[in-house]
Structures
1.
Amino acid sequence: MSSIQLPKGAKIYLPEEAARKRFVEDRLLRVFTAWGYREIVTPSFEYFDVLSIGTDLELQEKMFKLIDRETGRLLALRADVTPQIARIVATRLRDAPRPLRLAYLTNVFRYDEPQVGRYREFYQAGVELVGLEKPEADAEMIAMTVEGLRALGLTRFQIDVGHAEFVRGLLDEIKAEASQTRELQHAIARKDTSAVARLVAEIAPTAHVADALLALPSLVGRDDALGRAARLARNARSERALENLTEVYRLVTVYGLAETVIVDLGEVRGFDYYSGLHFEAYVAGLGASIGAGGRYDGMLGRFGYECPATGFAFEIGRALLAMESQGLAVPQTGPDFFIIDSTPEKTAALSLSRRLRDLGASVARDVVTRGLDESLAYARGQRVRRALVIGAPGMASGQARIIELETGAERELSVAEILEAPQKIVHG
């Protein structure tokens, strides 16, 4: 059986799973379009050297690569959508009016160990807001993330917000080896207070910088965290970051979403990717973030076009797990009609199918020879709403029996009457 197994990190979505996935994607895209974002579709693969311009080295190493037979150049499956969109904006959309609001629903590929709700091919729904450097743009990302979570019916969630520049300002003030700085950054990310204390003692920065670094793991909260951070920031870079974060938090409060946001100035995950404010969305009961985003002002510059940008993305697999953990069922529907025609010529079945589909109804036909009870059982298994039975034993010629499969209620109409006014059974 090993010869027919899927490769590690691949996943099949069977019909009911696919319906749940599509439900999540549709709900999120509806939120994005309501905010004025327009969908963009990028290719699954591009030349590796082009993608690598906008992709950090660590992520480059996780790309799936292959050779283009025609040119001999190295290709790669996309591991991140944002660099693709950055390149498109810097080239094809360079002269388009700003700001650009772009949305996407797509799959990405990373050669990595599968994680919670994420495989080596996984699905994202996200947006990019290009051309706005103001705090309003970052607040819009957070507000849309909250609206997306609510559109999925999720509750008990939290948005953790940090600012890469606040930490960078502190690291600028220390004199240490690059390896020590990186180790300190990792310790801060883990909120490992003992490791942070050890490294600060080894590096021995000035007293006010030491105090700020030691405080980072605990600079978590709302207005109180911003106030404590203000007393610790003594360099221009950290001060500017704090001013920006404070204004974003004020705007989020105006949106009425302050209770969903936690400020975490010691959050440095994505430190090498984000240029400013960044955030992650967490849902109670799920041990991984369901979505993340932030500012990446330097990305377009790698493609020769300096322009501010911010964005975020939901991970669809994790969204599905979060909904499952909160007991949120996705409505599962099958065809509107299942036509069971026992007459030899099947004329009624074909005519009714066409007329009903013309009105937008979904119609499946039973083409298997079996008993009526078996056909009805099959239709219920396919979540069909109504059965149309023609030519069954005991039925008059030219009549159709309409059966509500959920309740079992029945009525009869002539086939001619249905063909004349099919809306009677579509909307009735």
2.
Amino acid sequence: MAAGQSETSSIAPVKVRTGNAQQRRSGKGPSTQKYIATKVTEGTDANGNPTFTKEIVRYDDAKGSNPVVIGSQKTGETKITPTANANASDKIGMAEGGPLAKTSGQQMESTRDSFGLDAPAKDNFNKDNNKSGQAKASDAPQESSPASAGAAGAGDAASGNTRMSFPKDLKYPIDIGTTKQDVIKFDMLKYEPKKGQAGQVGFTLRSDTDTRIIGSCFLPIPAGIQDSSTVSFGDDSMNAIQAAAAEAAITTLSQGLGAGAESVVSSVKAAAGDPETKKAIESTFAGAAVGAENLLARTTGNILNPNLELLFKAPNLRTFNFTFKMSARNSDEADEIIRILRFFKQGSRPQRSQSNLYLKSPHTFKIKYLHRAAGTDEHQYIGKVKECACTSVAVNYTPDGQYATYTDGKLVSYALTLGFKELEPVFNDDYEDDNDTTIGF
């Protein structure tokens, strides 16, 4: 295409969370469905270099009814400017890190090959799409920040060589962006610990994961994806004497010593009126006095009813494992595979403080399945995954059972196995209302 020519992406459905900021961060606020496409127009600057502007077009439905431009982003700008047609939820969605802004960036990316650009022009395209360095991932800057830390406030600052920025468009196969193939997206996140609430008992929520992305990788959805949710239950017993003692202790703590004493007296009177209970108490205390356990069973053949019951103990954290076999078809794809291996290996490692006295938490990951035939929204029919720690990275350099390289030494195939564990459990209220038809977590 030449200057002045434009290309419009396919229409994608996007869910925009409204409500207050905390509701939007937690994903529990009300939502509205949008249908948008992105129109990209090529231009030139004063030196004849290609430039690219984009417009976000909103429709009433997936068929493209009633198109209205709700936002635009000119060359050199990093944020989307809402038009007079944008309503309140449009503006929320188009804000930095919002779902409309993210989808529009992906839609713009899908139009890139339609312009027939060379490498320098692709760099300009990526820059105008807020993805500088995408065309040549090896040129992506590695930012180091001595003020950045994995666990803020714990110890001194991170080492000056700690990597805090990674490429945001790593992908295998290298041309997967030009297809409609469903993908799994790994967003690397800057780790953020939970903090206590001032003046209250409890913890605050972590900030939205979209605001902490420092790198992204797209891979084909592998075989054998699954999830398993479990909770822990355990046997627990409490006989009548223990229950009475516990009730007296609780009463004393909540209502005072006098009320506790009354509870003890009431229990003793009740026991005195029941011969079996009286005998059980006598045997229990007598056994304790002489050091003979189970005196009641020895003398009467009875035991106190332990009231054995299965009780809830704790939720369990879910784990996820993925294996990807990546075979390079050319040198560029081999370079991309190597960057992907580096992405997971380096991103999952702990960080050293400048003094080397502390170790800080590694970066974390957000995992999403994307159903690209219906746009770039999260897959509705595969279980969602919460923020995860990458617990293991394993690479098999000879997955075909033999050593094989190209002439430049790059291996023909690599097998990458990743292990993840969620940072927090899945709770009942993490699921949406009864009218929601998605699987959810």
